[in-house]
Amino acid sequence: MKRLNSQMQQDGAPLELILLIRTLLAGCKEISFRVSQGALAGVLGSTLSENVQGETQKKLDVISNQILKDILKESGYVKAISSEEEDDVVPCHPDGKYLVSFDPLDGSSNTEINSLIGTIFSIAHAPQWMEPDDPAAFLQPGSQMVAAGYVLYGPSTMLAMTTGKGTHIYTLDKTHGGFLLTHPNIQVPEQTAEFSINASNQRHWEQPIQNYVADLLAGTEGPREKNYNMRWVAAMVGDIHRLLCRGGIFMYPYDKRDPGKPGKLRLLYEANPMAFLMEQAGGLASTGEGRIMEVMPEEIHQRVPVIIGSKDEVEACLSYYD
Ligand SMILES: O=P(O)(O)OC[C@H]1O[C@](O)(COP(=O)(O)O)[C@@H](O)[C@@H]1O
Ligand SMILES: [Mg+2]
Ligand SMILES: [Mg+2]
What we know:
Domain Fructose-1-6-bisphosphatase class I N-terminal: 5-184
Largest sheet: 8 strands, mixed
Binding site for Mg(2+) 2: 103, 106, 270
Shape: globular
CATH superfamily of the largest domain: Fructose-1,6-Bisphosphatase, subunit A, domain 1
Order of helices and strands: HHEEHEEEEEEEEEHEHEEHEEEH
Radius of gyration: 19 Å
CATH class of the largest domain: Alpha Beta
CATH topology of the largest domain: Fructose-1,6-Bisphosphatase, Chain A, domain 1
Bound molecules: 1,6-di-O-phosphono-beta-D-fructofuranose, magnesium ion
Strand content: 25-35%
Structural class: alpha+beta
CATH architecture of the largest domain: 2-Layer Sandwich
Low-confidence stretches: none
Number of helices: 7
Binding site for Mg(2+) 1: 84, 103, 105
Oligomer: single chain
Helix content: 25-40%
Pathway: Carbohydrate biosynthesis; Calvin cycle
């Protein structure tokens, strides 16, 4: 079975990017071990401190963030980091060629119930003019990413990654510690009968999503003339993994609760990397108004609405916005 290294070489990734990704994944392997220890490691539960987004941090969030930060700072390949768990940009090496954005632990409320969680990351070039502590360099559209992916900590630890030449899924062989290519060049089915949305927010949704979901729920008696099933992992990383494996549509739409928060998910380290993976697998990723990867970020923790998944179904959803 092919190893991660040879697939990245075959896809034409430059050596320094390959070395950076290997470093990042060494951190993820350590997170995978910590996560698998669960309550035994004494790492679960809340620290009762709040992160920049006002959510209570779980200890594993803090630990995962520290692991990735330390390993990337020491590597020399990275000029600066932006992380869900850091208020500001973290300066690294002045000569580092890359910028890394990550959500160290996505779906962290799932840690308490031993359910799916993961790390999401995106990598872009660091401009030469940039000072390592300057957040401005992170404000580039997702179309500038050179690599993106996630590591899913489930019954097995899996990596989904793209360097712009297709999306590949690897499985961590825990006997020797390497990621092996188990699902090369995946293609998301264009059609689906499965959708994911947190329906408890329904009263807050904007009208196009209200109308679209109502038509899905109407099943064979409605205009879509087919019955849909619903799935919700409560961790974007788990929902997107299901979509990559068998298709579907995932939505965290704009809702009317707080005009300052256009959606829940963060552009740099949640929406953009998932959009890159999805597009490279033949799917689509939109805000409802345009392609996620073309959104120009205004700040590093910016939130965006997300409509992502099987091509025909995302297009059907977007037709409600016309
Ligand atoms: O079920 P909810 O509360 O609507 O939120 C679920 C969403 O929140 C998130 O967990 C946010 O990620 P974090 O755990 O990194 O804050 C997404 O992964 C997920 O899709
Ligand atoms: Mg998250
Ligand atoms: Mg998180």
